[in-house]
Please model this.
Amino acid sequence: MRKPMLIVLIAVACWLVPDSARAAELHVPENAIAGQPVSIAVSGEGDAVFYLVGPGQVIKRNVKLGNDVQIKGEELRTAGRWIAIVRSGGSPQSKVFWVKPAQPENLSFLARPSRVPVNQRDAISGTVFVFDKFNNWVLQPTPINFSLSVNGIGISRTVTSRNGVAWIETSSAPREGAAQFVASVGTTSVRRVVQQVASQPCNLRIHLAQHTQDRIIVETDPVRDCTGNAVPDGTIVTFIQTDRRGKSTVDARIKKGIARAELPASDNAMISVAAGDALGNELHVGGGR
Amino acid sequence: MKLMRILVLSCGVVLAISGAVPLLVHILADTKPSIQINFDNTGPRQIEDTTQKAIVRDYSSAWQAMNTALANNNTAPLNQNFVGFALERLTHRVKDQQSTGVKTRLVDHGHKVEAIFYSKDGSAIQLRDIATIETQVLDGDTVIHSDQTQIQYWAVMTSTEDRWKVRVLESSPQ
Model:
C-alpha cells in the first residue's frame, strides 16, 4: 500500500514542480527602443516584486502576477542590456533584453584647432559622435553633414558614421575670418567657430623711410601672406644692417600692418629683412645711393 | 561518536565556505580586471606607446571603479574615472539602486578590447570591448538574478588633465 502511495505522491510532485516554476514567467520585449513604453507580461497568480535593472536606471515595484507590467518611456531611457526580474514566493525569475537607441538627435562635435593659418592642407579636423535625445550612442550608420565656410563660401561634405563616429579632415580657406564649422543630422546642427588667420608673411618689401646723419629708418610695405591676407599686428619682422662696422639687427613688431626699424646711420650699408620663413628685398643705403 | 565528529567537521567546512565565498567575491570586485587591448587597427591616427599604456591603465581602473560603485552603492569611485554621459548614467543607476535597495555585483572575467578610432587631434579614443562578466543582482543580501555571459561594450575615452576618462559606455548585442 505504501509503494503505490509513494508513487502517486512523486507523480503529483512532478506535476506541481514545473507548474510552480511557471508561476511567474516573464515575457520581455524583443524590440524595445529607448524612450518608448513597453509592457512586460508576467504570468502566474498572486503578488510579486518586479525589478528592472538597466544601464542607467533601476526600477522596483509590487505587481500582481498575471497582469502586464507597464513600463513608461521615461523609465526606459537608457539603451543597452536590461534585466527584468520577478520575485514571488518561489525562486526569482529573470530575463535579459536589449533596448536600442532612439533616432539620432544629438551630436557631440569636436572641432580642432580653434585657430588656424589660412590655406593649410588638412589643417582642420572635425569628429562627431552621434546620440539620440536621451544621450544613447547611436551605433547605426547615420549620414552626417559637415560644412565649413567663411562668409558663406566654403565646402560641404556628407560622411556616414561608422560605429557611431563620423569625422572629416579639411584644408583651411585662402581667406582669413571666422569660419563656421557646422555638423548636422536631420534638423539638429552643432556649430563651432574656427578662426582662420593670415599665414606666414610672403613677398616682404622694405623701403627707406628716412635717412639723416644720425639714423636710417626703414619700413616694410603692408605685410601680407601669400594669399593677400594682412599678417596680424605683433608679428615680428627682423631687419639686418650690414656695413664695414659689422652687423646690426633690429626685431620690430608689425603695427597697423607695417613694421618699422631705426638703424644706425651709415654711409654704405646693406639692409635686409626677414619674417618667419620669408626673406625680403635688400636695400643699399649710402655710397652710390 | 565518529558520526558526530564528521557532522561537526562538515558544519565547519560549510561555515568556512559560506564565509569565504562572499569574501572572494568582494576581493574580485576590488581587483583591477584583466584588460587586453589591440591597438593595431586604430585610425585615422596611430596611438603613441605612452598613450597605449595610459589607456590600458585607465580603462581597467574605470571598470574597477564601476564594479565597486555598483556593488557598494557608492558614487565616489566613479568621479575619478568617468565624465560626461557615462558618469551621469552610472551615477543615476547607483542612486536608483540606493533608493530601491538593489545592488549589482559584477564578477569580471576579463576584457578583449580593440581600439578602433583615435581622433586626429589625439583627444578621443573609441574602444570595442568583449567583456566576460558574471552579473549578480541582489536585493539586500539576496541574489535575485545571476548570469555569466560575454557582453559587447562600446566606449569613448577622452583625455583630461591627468588621465583618460570614460565619457561614453554602452552595451549592445554582438
Q: What stands out?
A: Chain A touches chain B at residues 49, 51, 53-60, 78-81, 83, 85, 87, 92, 94, 96, 98, 110, 112-113, 125, 127, 129, 131, 135-137, 139, 163-165, 167, 169 (CB under 8 Å). The mean pLDDT of chain A is 89. Helices of chain A lie at 2-21. Chain A has three domains: 12-100, 104-197, 201-286.
